[in-house]
Design a protein that fits this description.
The protein has one helix at 123-127, and strands spanning 31-35, 59-60, 63-64, 69-70, 80-98, 109-115, 133-140, 146-150, 156-165, 169-170, 172-179, 191-192, 201-205, 229-230, 240-258, 269-275, 281-289, 295-299, 306-314, 318-319, 321-328. It folds into two domains: 16-179, Sandwich (Jelly Rolls), CATH 2.60.120.260; 183-328, Jelly Rolls (Sandwich). It is mainly beta. This is Probable allantoicase.
Length: 329
Amino acid sequence: MSAICDDGRVSDPEPDFTWLPDLALRSLGGAVIWANDETFAEKENLINPGPAGYRAATFGHKGQVYDGWETRRRREPGHDQAVVRLGVPGLIRGVVVDTAWFKGNFPPEVSVEAIAVDGYPPAEQIAADPGWQTIVERAKVYGDTRNPFEVHSETRWTHVRLTMYPDGGVARLRVHGEGMPDRRQLGFGPVDLAALENGGLVLDCSNRFYSSPQNIIFPGLAQVMGDGWETARRRDDGNDWVLLRLAGPGRIRMAEIDTSYFIGNSPGAASLTGMRADGTHVPLLPRTDLLPDTRHRFPLGATDVIDRVRLDIFPDGGLARLRLFGELA
């Protein structure tokens, strides 16, 4: 969707990378671990889920309250920085620097760097590490606007660093990409092959009117209905579906289809179909009735190695989570 910038410019439609999950989200385990300054508004706001809010003439001890990260006005040369640890390390396909509600106090320019860190060194050590690599060159941004930047990199990253030139405020930093786990941590038992944190990804779906299908492979349990995937009401004879790429080719032993918090809008039934690398379809779960607000677990008998799974729901509705437990081939 196009946006009207504060200079009257109409921004381009958001690129396709925004379809991918935001790897930095707090709800995925992301954290803003360091910033050189946060005088006016806390750095942690950068990765909060949902759009930034604003209430005019709402003043705290340090001035107008902003739902974002805001530094003081610089009176000396330099720039301000914040470091975000990704909740799910992976391949970064694009970044959105959202300056929502920052109109007279947004940074004129920004850049974004990334780094892959092993282990758990202190935040100050990560911030000072010489290994940062630029993934978004220094670029102009606009106030009260979602500023998207496509990233071309095939490197697995664990942290990103946002730099503002020279100072100002950013409401949200979205880091869209594909999860890529540390393979050394897999293979010790059954693995959720659909999980975003293990390398799973939603490739396509029939409808995402109310919420993104990427939500169903997020970690943890849903806390509200909005944490899942919900489609519009169908008025035809079809059904809704979602297509997932697994963390890797593997065998699925058990499926969990979770309709928690979906009470009057859960699907009536669901089925699962696996796909081999050659495109052959493998039945995993026949059309099976579902209950509202329930975590269903279904043992699966198929032993084929598959790399994609299609979930069909009948006819429409919403799911909180989909778990596909098994082992990598």
